[in-house]
Amino acid sequence: MSRDFDLKRYLPYLLNRSGTRIADSFSVNLRNSYGITLQMWRVMAAVHHQDGQRVGELSGTTSIEISTLSRLLTTMEARGLVERRRPSRQPGADARVVTINLTKDGHSLTEAIIPLALQYEEIALDGLSEQEVATLKHLLDRLFENMAALDEEDAQKLAS
Amino acid sequence: MSRDFDLKRYLPYLLNRSGTRIADSFSVNLRNSYGITLQMWRVMAAVHHQDGQRVGELSGTTSIEISTLSRLLTTMEARGLVERRRPSRQPGADARVVTINLTKDGHSLTEAIIPLALQYEEIALDGLSEQEVATLKHLLDRLFENMAALDEEDAQKLAS
DNA sequence: TATTGTTATACTCTATAACTATA
DNA sequence: TATAGTTATAGAGTATAACAATA
Q: Which of A13 and B149 is assigned the larger pLDDT?
């Protein structure tokens, strides 16, 4: 084992295993209890948070790749959870844009799932102090921002 | 927007977006520079950390589903990165078990990638104090342990 | 020409279950 | 009967590129 690489203290490893563990468990529960996938929940939670997001924007907030998202939206539209809108001919509107809204049913389903989602968060954070929770969330935000600052060009230069 | 559900402060969301951002960027770099996938790297890093793990064990340490892993190992074996072993007829050995080792090439490739992996970690953690890094890693460990304590039976009872 | 979103294709990953060989 | 691992199949997700409509 390499002296300077300790998997058990390697951030991407720690991030991946806690993330997938929560995701996998919640995913099973969503399917069994509500018949939806985790990705559908992510879309619903994101649109619930901010209604009328563009498809590209939504791809960013959900971390779902845009072509996957476009087809996912078609499925969700067919199931009556969301609707696509071409922002009508307002002055200066960009007619290429498509915005996404929750339907009434989609909104109700989201509200119904939220308590379960919060229970999972509570279980994950069990035993942590308010202060620790705040610190953790703050630091996760920092990681995200730090990675955002790394563009593709810079990333390619890393492998030397 | 529901009063008690703030996506921007929702742990699974924060975890997922920082995790996928690091993973996506590293993944592109691994493919372009070394011709391997992120999942292959995860296997290599896990076996590098502890040689001779069983397939089931390795599924746990890599968070890769076991049937996916089994086929991935076949691919990696064909590329000369790892080898499968039936622990030979030692007294009391379980002949059903298959253990995984890095080949010499697999080991060299892993060692070659480690500096890049550490650079990604450094970028993600940029600007954080030693203390903050230690806290973050500790808390991510806690999350993982908390989720491990939740078995499937308990999980099903959550949706009420 | 560039951008927004959709669609097509091939590939990877997951979920489930059947299968083998052991125990 | 149960367990470790492999394999088969179908369904999701990703990567890439081509495409239509609009800017």
A: A13
CATH number attached to the domain at A10-124 = 1.10.10.10
Report d(CA B22, CA B13) in Å as an integer. 14
Buried b (16+ CB within 10 A) or exposed e, A96-126: eebbbebeeebbebbeebbebbebbbebbbe
Question: Where on strand C do bases come within 7 A of a protein Cβ?
Answer: 3-9, 12-17, 21-23
- Report how far apart, in Å, the C-alpha atoms of A94 and of each of A1, A5, A54, A82, A97 are: 56, 50, 11, 21, 6
Given CB atoms, is A26 within the 8 Å cutoff of chain B?
A: yes
Domain extent listing, chain A: 10-124
Residue A155 has its nearest CB partner, among B2, B28, B159, at: B28
- Tens of pLDDT, residues A72-95: 999 999 999 999 998 766 778 899
Per-residue pLDDT tens over the stretch B54-91: 999 999 999 999 999 999 999 999 999 999 998 766 77
